[in-house]
Amino acid sequence: MYLYIYDSFLNHKKYTDLLTKIEKRITDLGIKGKVAKLSVLKNMKELILDGVREGVQTVVVIGNSQSFTKVINIVANLDVALALIPVENDSNIAKVLGIPPGVLACDVLASRIIKKIDLGKINNHYFISNTQIINGDILIEYDQFKIQPTTTQNRIAFYNLADPGSNVASKPDDGLLEAVITPMKSTLFGKKAIPETVLPFKKIKITSNTEEQVAIVTDEEIIMKTPADISVSPAKLKIIVGSDRQFE
C-alpha cells in the first residue's frame, strides 16, 4: 500500500493543474493509495506511523527536497520504502536519485527500482544530502588526527550525496561520507577558494575552538550546533530510484 504525503505549500493554486495530472497518472498506473495533505493541524509523524500500522509499505513525498528531508528521520527506522515526486526541476536530491519532475516521476514510482542507500547522521539526526559549516572556528577529530581550517573564512561540508556536477566523488551507497574543507582567501576581486581537502570517513567529531557554539546547517534546512559527532549509517534507507540515477 502507498501513502502519498502532500506538502502544505502545494495548497497554492498554481500547483492545481500539475497535481491533477499527477493524480491521473497514478490512477492510470494502478498505484493509488492513502492520501495525507499536511497542514498546521496535521502531524507528519503521526500520519506516517498511522499509515504503517494500517499496512503502508511505501511512503511517497509529493513536494520538493525540503519536503523529502523532513520525512527521512521518520522513516529511517521503519521497514518501508521512500519515494519522491518532485513538483519542480530544482531538486538536486531528485537528480542524483534519477527522478524526473512532475508526472514523469510517477513512472519511476511504478517501476519500483528499490535501492538501499546510506544516510549521514549528526548526533541523533539523519541527513541524506550534506551538512555544512561556514566560517567556523572548529576542530575536526578524524581517526588519530586533529584538523582545523587554515583560514578564518572557509566552508566545510560533509557529504553523503554530492550535488550533480560537483567535483566531490560522494556516493550514497559506498558506506562512507566525505568531509570537504575549502579555505577561502580574500583578494582585491573578492573571495577566492584555495584548493580543497577531501577526507573520506565513517565517523568524525567536531568541536568549537571557542566557548561559542558553531552552527551546522543540515540538508539546507535544519540547524545543529557543535559539539557534534557525524557518522555514516550504511544501507539505512530503502528508496525508489530511477534508471538515470548517479550511482549503481
Account of the protein in words:
The chain is an alpha+beta fold and 248 residues long. It is 19% helix and 41% strand. Strands 1, 2, 3, 4, 5, 6, 8, 9, 14 and 17 form a 10-stranded mixed sheet that branches. Strands 7, 10, 11, 12, 13, 15 and 16 form a 7-stranded antiparallel sheet that branches. The chain starts with a strand and ends in a 7-residue tail after the last strand. The model has no long low-confidence stretch (mean pLDDT 91).
Task: Kindly summarize this structure in a few lines.
With 248 residues, the chain is of the alpha+beta class. The protein folds into 2 domains: 2-111, 3-Layer(aba) Sandwich (Rossmann fold); 122-232, Tumour Suppressor Smad4. It has 5 helices and 17 strands.
What key attributes describe this structure?
248 residues, alpha+beta, Rossmann fold, 2 domains, 19% helix, 41% strand
Chart the SSEs and their pairings.
Blueprint: E1 2-6, H1 16-28, E2 34-37, H2 44-53, E3 58-63, H3 65-75, E4 81-86, H4 92-97, H5 104-111, E5 113-122, E6 125-127, E7 130-134, E8 138-142, E9 145-147, E10 154-159, E11 177-187, E12 190-193, E13 197-201, E14 203-208, E15 215-218, E16 222-225, E17 228-241
Parallel strand pairs: 1-2, 1-3, 3-4, 4-17
Antiparallel strand pairs: 5-6, 5-17, 7-10, 7-15, 8-9, 8-14, 10-11, 11-12, 11-13, 14-17, 15-16
Question: What is the C-level CATH assignment of the largest domain?
Answer: Mainly Beta
Count of β-strands: 17
Low-confidence stretches: none
Beta-strand proportion: 35-45%
- CA-based gyration radius: 19 Å
Largest sheet: 10 strands, mixed
Distance between the termini: 27 Å
* Coarse structural class: alpha+beta
Give the overall pLDDT as a whole number. 91
